[in-house]
Write a structure and sequence with these properties.
By secondary structure, the chain is mainly beta. It contains one helix and five strands, in the order αβββββ.
Amino acid sequence: MRKVLDKSIRYGEELDMMYLAADGEISRRRIKVLQVGEVSFRAYCYLRKSKRTFSIESVLALVPVIKKESKVI
């Protein structure tokens, strides 16, 4: 997980994340990672429209968001 988080900061990628909340609920969020610590990371959460702190061990999956460019002819 840490490698994906570090890579997303380096390249400015957004990530889709599956996250297990403290109450046991699983949520899907789109995030932009801002800072990575030892046990947690800070990210902008597009679902909540604010900066949030997430526990690394509660992350179930991280997938980079692929944006396709379209050409206008």
